[in-house]
UniProtKB/TrEMBL annotation:
Protein name: TRAF-interacting protein with FHA domain-containing protein A
Gene name for this UniProt entry: Tifa
Gene3D superfamilies tied to this protein: 2.60.200.20
Any matching Pfam family: FHA
Biological-process GO terms, alphabetical: innate immune response; positive regulation of canonical NF-kappaB signal transduction
Protein family (similarity comment): Belongs to the TIFA family.
Principal subcellular localization: cytoplasm
PANTHER family (UniProt xref): TRAF-INTERACTING PROTEIN WITH FHA DOMAIN-CONTAINING PROTEIN A, TRAF-INTERACTING PROTEIN WITH FHA DOMAIN-CONTAINING PROTEIN A FAMILY MEMBER
Length: 186
């Protein structure tokens, strides 16, 4: 037997890809302490904290409008499953955190969807989970967006779009309710 055959099986690692955007990022440089484009390992039992306090947070945002500890991400294994996930918790007493359309107040937490937009204040963070097998640690990889994420990426709309392409909100803003018409009448 050679060393290749005796080597342990390599396991894949769950990676959380985070893309950051703020409209004043060029002038204020609030992301200067973040390490972009390099994967970073975090032990599975540690929470990844984001905020302005560099002694308490792994990821520091250099902005006085950001809470000392803004939010945390905790890696976990789902009950009776081999699947892994992340839980996001808002740790700010002053600022609400939004995950897609779900608003989280202080100490509220939810499971992080596999692809979502996290926002607070003027900050937008696109989070995408790349699944892996490792239970000892996970990785993060950070990116910087050039344009607003909410305009750049089209996440699935929660509101159905009718075949005629006119949104129901169009009628509501006009003070009219939608009416059904036969397509032959058009």
């Amino acid at each position: 037997m050679n060393s290749f055959e005796e080597a342990e099986t390599e396991e894949t690692v769950t990676c959380l890809h985070l893309t950051f955007y703020h409209p004043g990022q060029d002038e204020k440089m609030m992301f200067r302490c973040l390490n972009f484009c390099k994967r970073e390992q975090i032990r599975a039992d540690e929470a990844a904290k984001f905020g302005r306090d560099s002694s308490a947070c792994r990821y520091s945002l250099m902005d006085t409008r950001v809470s000392r500890i803004q939010f945390s991400l905790q890696f976990y294994r789902k009950l009776h499953s081999s699947e892994h996930g992340f839980e996001i918790k808002n740790l700010s007493k002053k600022t609400k955190l939004t995950v897609n359309q779900t608003e989280l107040g202080h100490l509220n937490k939810i499971d992080l969807p596999w692809k979502c937009i996290i926002s607070f204040g003027d900050y937008q963070i696109l989070a995408e989970i790349q699944e892996g097998e490792s239970v000892d640690y996970f990785e993060t990889q950070l990116y910087l967006a050039e344009a607003p994420i909410l305009q750049e990426r089209c996440l699935p709309s929660l509101q159905p779009i009718p075949e005629n392409g006119i949104s129901p909100s169009f009628f509501l803003s006009q003070g009219k309710s939608p009416t059904e018409i036969d397509e032959n009448e058009l």
